[in-house]
């Protein structure tokens, strides 16, 4: 177990006690003290082996064992003993109340050789006896007094100490023997006072014997011899300052300006009251000069409040006595401000940005300037001086906060700068800062403000509609048109990408970056002569991109890429033998899907013929000579040619015979066989 102890005042013991409890197998009962605490007293002059008191422990019923006693703690110096058989406590050494006024012993009782025991506390008060006389710190002393000191002046304090307590230590003072009635003493305090004025010319030395007596029985006494010397005037008064410990001076005063008049008084006479003045500390930079006789303090150099606004000078006033007495004063000199500092902006160039299209009142920036002056001289006001674009902003004159006064449009006005015009998008506004001094001092700074872009513009094509004509023989991948769209926004908001919508039938594609439209397959006017679709220009904004569409019409111009085709081939004509000359006996017809001259067909006979003639435009075959027999037959090869730059021609067979003559036409083979590889290209032979 760990046991802690507290006294009645709540203070704990310096250390704890460790208690070990052994648990025995059989129940053993100790001898129990009649009381848990005993209190005795003994005078400190009791001789050795004096009886202090007796403690008693009772053995258990029917016990035949003898009780023994011992002191187990509280007597480290062995000043006490206890009779082990009867419990009588004796003094063993000389006691001293002044060294130890209270002793607390712990006494244990043991029953025979039993391992268990009980304990009790014994409090012994060592009572004081008057065995110490009062003691002065010195046996004699000397005092100098002045003839100017009035009656009632305290000229000495006698002090003695007595180690005893109570009345034995209470001291009374008295004058045991005196040569004059000029002195009295306070019996309780020991203060020696003058009862009248002493004159040096009558008696220069007085001897007093001061007695210090305690209140014991019998009382003990000590004596102090004190000699007093009178002088006409002694330097017994220190100087004292009467001038103010604080002074004020403007920072712009000239060198030699009177700052303060230092004044001290000394009631002593003659040289004892003559004073000189000196600066002990605080004037390390030698800003001031002090006249040691007059006490006039003047400036020795120009002052600057912004460098040092307060000086603390330790000034000493020293009399001319021996030894000299002095007094010190801390003189505070406050340097007052004049408006000699110009406000300085923390930056000469401020740069910031603000979003366009925001409501008026949008915070832009806070500019700040500092002024080393104080008071009104350091209070600052801000404003924007008139200039291009200045009306779009508003300045808080006290805080320096700049806000918008109108909604800004980056595309109209991109940059405002606060100093001089740079280009059409840059403006100069001058921010002025002035203090409230008189006269006021000002400075300016430049603000470079960029209006940040918002995606408020859609891309715009150069035209509202695009039309273009291309020939049908363009190769795949040919560029036919370059679209261009512009976006007044900046960054991704102004970066344009292109795409196509609506059906292009797989014939066209657009480069998403350049806007170039290219063919993606071969064109054929005869299949589709015109394409109409829309191109889209989209910006690259990551939030709500904007786009514009434009119509694109592509006309396919014809090239001579088709042969004439006869509507019938071969043509069989049955002609009566009596057919008249100049009569049309047959008409060949052909078509060409090309346009214009590329599709205009003219007919001709491949071989010169006198019997028949063909009309080049209509294809009519006309009989020019009479038939020479009734079984007439012939074969005419007719060509159909278009009028293209590189004409294309087709041929047809016209078989003419009389009704009596019939030509048999037959295949040369009754079965034709051929093989074709898979994946063969169209038109392959």
Automatic annotation (TrEMBL):
GO molecular function, a single term: calcium ion binding
This protein's record includes keyword Repeat: yes
CDD domains for this protein: Cadherin_repeat
UniProt keyword list: Calcium, Cell adhesion, Glycoprotein, Membrane, Repeat, Transmembrane, Transmembrane helix
Localization of this protein: Membrane
InterPro entries: Cadherin-domain_protein, Cadherin-like_dom, Cadherin-like_sf, Cadherin_CS
Protein name, UniProt field: PCD23 protein
Organism name: Helopsaltes ochotensis (Middendorff's grasshopper-warbler)
Gene expressing this chain: Dchs2
């Amino acid at each position: 177990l760990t046991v802690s102890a507290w006294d009645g005042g709540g203070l704990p013991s310096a250390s704890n006690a460790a208690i070990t409890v052994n648990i025995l197998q059989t129940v053993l009962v100790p001898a129990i003290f009649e009381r848990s605490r005993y209190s005795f007293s003994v005078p400190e002059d009791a001789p050795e082996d004096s009886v202090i008191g007796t403690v008693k422990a009772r053995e258990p019923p029917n016990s035949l064992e003898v009780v023994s006693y011992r002191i187990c703690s509280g007597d480290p110096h062995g000043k006490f003993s206890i009779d082990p058989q009867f419990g009588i406590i004796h003094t063993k050494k000389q006691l001293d109340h002044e060294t130890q006024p209270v002793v607390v012993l712990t006494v244990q009782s043991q029953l025979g050789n039993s391992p268990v025991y009980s304990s009790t506390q014994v409090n012994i008060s060592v009572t004081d006896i008057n065995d110490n006389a009062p003691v002065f710190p010195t046996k004699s002393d000397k005092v100098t007094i002045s003839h100017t000191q009035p009656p009632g002046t305290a000229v000495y304090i006698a002090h003695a100490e007595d180690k005893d307590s109570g009345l034995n230590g209470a001291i009374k003072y008295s004058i045991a023997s005196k040569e004059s009635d000029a002195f009295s003493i306070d019996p309780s305090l020991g203060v020696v006072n003058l009862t009248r004025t002493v004159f040096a010319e009558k008696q220069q030395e007085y001897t007093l014997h001061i007695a210090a007596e305690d209140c014991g029985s019998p009382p003990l006494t000590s004596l102090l011899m004190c000699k007093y010397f009178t002088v006409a005037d002694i330097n017994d008064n220190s100087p004292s300052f009467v001038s103010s410990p604080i002074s004020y001076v403007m920072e712009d005063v000239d060198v030699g300006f009177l700052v303060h008049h230092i004044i001290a008084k000394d009631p002593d006479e003659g040289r004892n009251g003559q004073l000189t003045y000196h600066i002990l500390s605080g004037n390390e930079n030698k800003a001031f000069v002090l006249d040691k006789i007059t006490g006039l303090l003047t400036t020795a150099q120009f002052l600057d409040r912004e460098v040092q606004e307060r000086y603390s000078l330790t000034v000493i006033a020293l009399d001319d006595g021996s030894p000299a007495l002095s007094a010190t004063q801390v003189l505070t000199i406050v340097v007052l401000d004049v408006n000699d500092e110009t406000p300085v902006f923390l930056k000469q160039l401020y740069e910031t940005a603000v979003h366009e299209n925001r409501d008026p009142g949008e915070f832009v920036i806070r500019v700040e300037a500092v002024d080393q002056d104080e008071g009104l001289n350091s209070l600052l006001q801000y404003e924007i001086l008139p200039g291009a674009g200045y009306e779009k902003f508003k300045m808080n004159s006290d805080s320096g906060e700049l806000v918008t006064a109108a909604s800004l449009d980056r595309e109209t006005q991109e940059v405002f700068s606060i100093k001089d015009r740079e280009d059409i998008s840059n403006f100069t506004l001058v921010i002025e800062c002035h203090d409230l001094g008189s006269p006021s001092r000002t400075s300016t700074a430049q603000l470079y403000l960029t209006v940040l872009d918002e995606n408020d513009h859609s891309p715009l094509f150069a035209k509202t509609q695009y039309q273009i004509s291309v020939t049908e023989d363009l190769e795949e991948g040919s560029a036919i048109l370059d679209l261009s769209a512009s976006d007044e926004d900046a960054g991704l908001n102004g970066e344009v990408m292109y795409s196509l919508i609506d059906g292009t039938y797989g014939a066209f594609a657009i480069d998403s970056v350049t806007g170039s439209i290219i063919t993606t397959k071969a064109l054929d006017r005869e299949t589709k002569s015109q394409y109409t679709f829309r191109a889209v220009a989209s910006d690259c904004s990551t939030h709500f991109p904007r786009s514009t569409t434009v119509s694109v019409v592509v006309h396919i111009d014809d090239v001579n890429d088709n042969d004439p085709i006869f509507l019938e081939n071969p043509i069989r004509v049955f002609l009566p033998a009596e057919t008249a000359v100049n009569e049309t006996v047959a008409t060949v017809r052909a078509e060409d899907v090309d346009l214009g001259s590329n599709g205009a067909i003219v007919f001709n006979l491949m071989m010169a013929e006198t019997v028949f003639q063909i009309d080049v435009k209509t294809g009519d075959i006309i009989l020019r000579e009479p038939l020479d027999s009734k079984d007439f037959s012939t074969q005419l090869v007719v060509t159909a040619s278009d009028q293209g730059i590189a004409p294309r021609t087709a041929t047809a067979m016209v078989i003419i015979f009389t009704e009596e003559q019939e030509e048999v036409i037959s295949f040369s083979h009754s079965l034709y066989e051929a093989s074709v590889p898979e994946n063969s290209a169209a038109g392959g032979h």
